[in-house]
Every structure is written in C-alpha cells, then in structure tokens.
Amino acid sequence: TQLLEQSPQFLSIQEGENLTVYCNSSSVFSSLQWYRQEPGEGPVLLVTVVTGGEVKKLKRLTFQFGDARKDSSLHITAAQPGDTGLYLCAVDYGNNRLAFGKGNQVVVIP
Amino acid sequence: SQTIHQWPATLVQPVGSPLSLECTVEGTSNPNLYWYRQAAGRGLQLLFYSVGIGQISSEVPQNLSASRPQDRQFILSSKKLLLSDSGFYLCAWSDGRGPDTQYFGPGTRLTVL
C-alpha cells in the first residue's frame, strides 16, 4: 500500500504556464518534504513543511501543507525548462526513515 | 562540507553473478545511512538503513544484503543477482535529527541481463 499518492504522474506544459501537483495521504504527518530529481541523479531537498496550512515559497515554487497535515501541493508559476524533473514528496514514518511517493514527472517545453 | 560518493556509476551484470555497490560519506561523523532502489514507475523503495557501524535494518525481504564496516561506508551486496534486481540504486545519509533531511548520492544504474 502506497502511503503517499502523487498526482498527476506526468505533466507536460509550455514554458511560461503555471502548474500544480499534489501529494495526498489518509494519514497525518508531523512534517512533509519535497525533493526534485533530475535524470540520472539523486533527489535534492527543496523544502520541508511542518505546520498545518503552512505556505513556503522558493522563487517561483510555492509549497503548501494541508490544514489537516495529510496532503501538500506544489505550484510553479511561469514554469521554465529548468523546472523539468521528477518531484517527490516524502514523510518520516519513524526512526528517521522516509517514505516517498512515486513522483510527479514535470516536463516544461521551451 | 559533506559529500557522498557512490560507485560504480553504471553496471551491467549477468543473472546469477555477485554484486557489490559502495557508498562513502565525507565531512560528517556517525551519519544515518540508507540504500534505496528506484525502479521505473515505482518511486524510491527503502532497502536498508543503518544508524551505526554494524547496525543494519532491512525494510523488505529480498536477494540483497547490506553492511557497514566503517562509520562512513555503506555496502550493498548480493550473492546471486536476479533480473528483478535491475534498477537505480541510491545511497543517502542524514544526521538523524528531525525533520530528517536526506542527502543523496549520484546513484548506480544496475542492469541485470
């Protein structure tokens, strides 16, 4: 059973468009992380959200943690080709172990 | 600053052959260490994690084993590879303080033929 469900699995958009991807669960978490992974490389942490309703911004990326701390969204404004990658959400399920979703593959076309 | 190394970067092995993948971390001491496998369409699956030398926890039963002979060295092994062992293997480390940030190595692409 997958702890985190990410949707959509794949998204292709034109440069300059906006997009939102989602990470959902039926469980409550104390924190949630978003990573970005480029082909042939390891994931890199983008942000950690810890408070229900929290919004964090990283340049054109906006991350929100749901009020009930069960879900999160990532919104990209005016997407650039450099935003292309696999976006993974992750949660700590005990003893410093992370469970990852399957990811949102984003492709930004120039 | 901390760095994490993995080798080899790519590997093609026949079914039934042994495997040894190595991961080393620099610039930190007593890190938590992790081995993940990433198969197409399946996200990252945690295989093993270690909180100290000789301390290994397995997440899923499988054809693989892990060892931590030194504080900053983590090794993934198999005596006989299966086709299903193909995938992208990632090593990661963390300082064990929550919320836990994990730092990933560059990965090893393993193809079993």
Percent helix of chain A, as a range, is under 10%
Arithmetic mean pLDDT of chain A:
94
Percent of residues of chain B in beta strands?
over 45%
- The sequence of SSEs of chain B as H and E is EEEEEEEEEEE
Task: Count up the helices of chain B.
Answer: 0
Total DSSP E strands of chain B: 11
- Helix/strand class of chain B: mainly beta
Shape of chain B: globular
Helix content percent band of chain B: under 10%
Secondary structure: elements and pairs:
The complex is a heterodimer of chains A (110) and B (113).
Chain A: E1 5-7, E2 10-14, E3 19-24, E4 32-37, E5 44-49, E6 55-58, E7 61-65, E8 71-76, E9 85-92, E10 98-100, E11 104-109
Chain B: E1 3-7, E2 10-13, E3 19-26, E4 32-38, E5 44-52, E6 55-58, E7 65-70, E8 73-78, E9 87-94, E10 103-104, E11 108-112
Parallel strand pairs in B: 2-11
Antiparallel strand pairs in B: 1-3, 3-8, 4-5, 4-9, 5-6, 7-8, 9-10, 9-11
List its salient traits.
heterodimer, A: 110 residues, mainly beta, five-stranded antiparallel beta sheet, 53% strand, B: 113 residues, seven-stranded mixed beta sheet, 11 strands, 0% helix
Outline the structure in words.
The complex is a heterodimer of chains A (110) and B (113). Chain A is mostly beta strands and 110 residues long. Chain A contains no helices and 11 strands. In chain A, the strands form 2 sheets. In chain A, strands 2, 4, 5, 9, 10 and 11 form a 6-stranded mixed beta sheet that branches. Helix content of chain B is 0%, strand content 57%. In chain B, the strands form 2 sheets. In chain B, strands 2, 4, 5, 6, 9, 10 and 11 form a 7-stranded mixed beta sheet that branches. In chain B, strands 1-3-8-7 form a 4-stranded antiparallel beta sheet, with no helix packed on it. Chain B is globular and about 40 Å long. The A-B interface holds A 30-31, 33, 40-45, 48, 50, 88, 92, 95-103 and B 32, 34, 41-44, 46, 49, 51, 57, 59, 90, 92, 94, 96, 98-107, 109.
